[in-house]
Design brief:
Layout lengths: L2 H4 L5 E4 L2 E6 L12 H14 L6 E9 L6 E12 L3 E10 L7 E8 L24 H4 L12 E7 L11 E7 L6 H6 L8 H5 L3 E12 L3 H5 L6 E11 L2 E10 L4 E13 L7
Antiparallel strand pairs: 1-2, 2-4, 3-6, 3-9, 4-5, 5-6, 7-8, 8-10, 9-12, 10-11, 11-12
């Protein structure tokens, strides 16, 4: 079985720059639309399959224009520019047979050269993941919601979210779907609770507007992790006028920064029905 089959993202080419796939119901959020992380993984997976693309995904920015339904999807890829080492591509994901864009992505592909490495950031301190309770012990049934069926998450601090002055959370996460790769690493960047919950509590509804992922680690470095845990540090900075932001860092157990992400979410208070 290929990694594409393992991740339930079997791609069928229908014409140059045109693909189809089937998103199973397991990728749906409780609200009905597909989990945002699925679109991230799909954009990476289709670029890995695109025969005209050179290198590997380095960064991508997704705009969530409309909710995607589970079921048949159409994907379109288009090269915007190709240089010696860097290529820029556009990816659109549509409901099958529709011209309405559900998710739009700009993907930067790169042939990674050998250059001196450096790092200013350092991994936050966290207890070993094996010392933390499993999610099935803390929240039975949680593996069925919000993409958690793809990942096992062990919280070190900051979960479940409660209104406070601190939005920071730390969690160890590993894949339930085989060894890490770029698609799975991209998908996990949409696996943290909305930061609006840390300010206002669960009385708000939220949806992602845009999300940018920077995949610092190479494909080989990600593959070397196998199925080990990675550490996610997530925090929000500001919210107002319906929009809130968050940023996250993703670390290997040995302290290598694998990826970073920035997300803008739309939030609003849920209407409270008056008592009868």
């Amino acid at each position: 079985m290929s990694l594409t089959d393992t991740h339930a993202m079997t791609l069928t080419p229908t014409a140059p720059g045109r693909w189809t796939t089937t998103a199973g119901p397991e990728w749906r959020n409780p609200g009905g639309g597909l989990w945002g992380g699925y679109a991230i993984g799909l954009a990476i997976r289709v670029m890995e399959a695109e025969p005209e693309a050179l290198g590997e995904p380095l960064s991508l920015t997704l705009t969530y224009a409309a909710a995607l339904p589970a079921g048949e999807l159409d994907i379109r890829t288009r090269r915007l520019r190709q240089g010696g080492s860097i290529g820029v591509w556009e990816v659109e994901i549509h409901p099958a047979g529709s011209d309405q864009v559900g998710v739009h992505a700009i993907v930067t592909m790169a042939r990674r050269p050998s250059t001196p490495a450096f790092a200013f950031a350092s991994m936050p301190a966290a207890p070993d993941p094996e010392s933390l309770p499993s999610p099935d012990m803390m929240m039975p049934g949680a593996s069925q919601h919000f993409g958690a069926q793809a990942f096992e998450r062990r919280t070190a601090e900051g979960f479940p979210p409660r209104p406070s002055t601190d939005s920071r959370s730390l969690a160890w996460v590993r894949s339930r779907r085989g060894p890490w790769d770029k698609a799975l690493l991209g998908m996990v960047t949409d696996n943290s609770a909305p930061r609006a919950f840390y300010a206002l509590g669960p009385t708000v509804s939220t949806t992602t507007l845009s999300l940018t992922v920077y995949l610092h680690a190479s494909s080989e470095e990600i593959a070397a992790m196998g199925d080990d845990y990675l550490l996610i540090e997530c925090e929000g900075r500001v919210g107002g006028g319906g929009a809130s932001d968050e940023r996250s860092s993703y670390w290997s157990r040995d302290g290598k920064l694998l990826a970073t992400s920035e997300q803008l979410a739309w939030y609003r208070e849920r209407r409270r029905e008056p008592p009868e």
